[in-house]
C-alpha cells in the first residue's frame, strides 16, 4: 500500500489546454509555457493542447520550450482577423478532439488556461471521464471586446453574455485560479463563483540581471503594442518630460498600434527619442531590462503583469497605472509609483520623479523591487498547482499586501 508521502511524490501526467501558447507573445502564453516547463523539471509529464500555427500542419509532436520537452497536440485553427495574430481552434470539434487526446494519454488532471474555446470542450470531456479539472482565468471579456467587430452600442450586451458564459464553463472545474487576490475578487463578483484561488503567475527571479550602477534615463515598456496597453498615454507622457533629462523610451514588442505610435511620437517632437524594438529573443529582452532605468506600464487591465514581475526581477523601479492587479506589485513610493489611469501628466511627473532621484534613493527602489518579487518566485506557483492537481488543500501564495504588511521586512523572508 502506498502511503501519503509516496503518493505526494509520484510524478503526474498533466494536460494543459491553451487557446494561446508559444510562439504567441502574451501573458497567458508565457505563463502556460513556464508552468509546463517547470512541471517537466519536477519530473512530471506534460501534454499541451494548443492551436496549430498553420492550417496545413496539425497533429501531435514534441516541442522544446524553456528547455523542457513538451508533448504538443496542435489542433486545426484559423486566424481571427480582427486581431493581428490570434488563432482559434474549432469550438464544434473541441470536445471530440479533447476526448480523443484524453483517452490516449489518460492524465491525472486537466488544467485549462482559457474558457473561450479550449476550456469549453475540454472541461466537458474531462468531467465525463472523471478526470480532475483545474481552470485558470487570465483574461477579462472586457479586453476581448475591442478585437471583435460588434458595434459599440451592442458591446454591453455582449459583455453581459460573455461573463455569464465564462461562469458556466468555470463552474465545471474542481478549482478555479487567477493570478492575484484582486483579480480573484473581481472574478468572484462577475461570475458568482466562490473560493477562487489567487496564485501568481510566477517568474524565475534568478534568470534576470540587475544593474545598480548604470544611469541613462532609459524608460522601457514591454508587451503587445495594442490599444488595451494604453501606449498612447505613455508616448504623450514622455513628450512632457524635460528635454534636459536626455531621456529615451524603448518599446519592446509589436502590434497594430506601432505605426500610429510612431506617427504620434513624431508629431509630438520626440520621434528620435522613442524607439521600437519589435519582437526580440529572451536574451535580448533580459538585456533590455538590465540597461533600462524604469519600467512604464500604462495598461489598466492587467490581471497580473508578467512583464512587471520580470522588470522587478531585473531590479527596476516601476511606474504603473493604479488599476486592477498592478498595485499589488508596485508599492507606491517603495519600488516605484502608481499614476492615475490614462493621465499622461501624472505619468510624466512620476517618471520624472524616478529619473531625478539621488543615486542612493534610486538604488533603494531597485533593491525594493528585488525584495518584493521574491514572494512571486515560480517555485511557489509550481508547488501550489501540484497540490491542486492532486486534490490536496492549498493556502494561496501571498499575492496582495495591505499597507502595514508592505512595510514589514518579514515579507522579504517569504512569509
Describe the protein's architecture and organization.
Residues 25-204 form the Glycosyltransferase subfamily 4-like N-terminal domain. This protein has two domains: 11-202 and 385-390, Rossmann fold (3-Layer(aba) Sandwich); 205-374, 3-Layer(aba) Sandwich (Rossmann fold). The radius of gyration is 21 Å and the shape is globular. By secondary structure, the protein is an alpha/beta fold. It contains 15 helices and 16 strands. The protein has helices at 4-9, 27-41, 91-105, 118-128, 141-145, 155-170, 181-191, 231-238, 258-267, 282-291, 306-313, 344-355, 359-372, 378-390, 403-406; strands at 13-17, 45-51, 59-65, 68-75, 77-79, 87-89, 109-112, 132-136, 175-178, 197-198, 218-222, 248-252, 274-278, 294-297, 318-321, 336-339. It is 38% helix and 18% strand. α8 packs across α12.
Keywords:
single chain, 415 residues, alpha/beta, Rossmann fold, 2 domains, eight-stranded mixed β-sheet, six-stranded parallel β-sheet, 15 helices, 16 strands, 18% strand, disordered C terminus
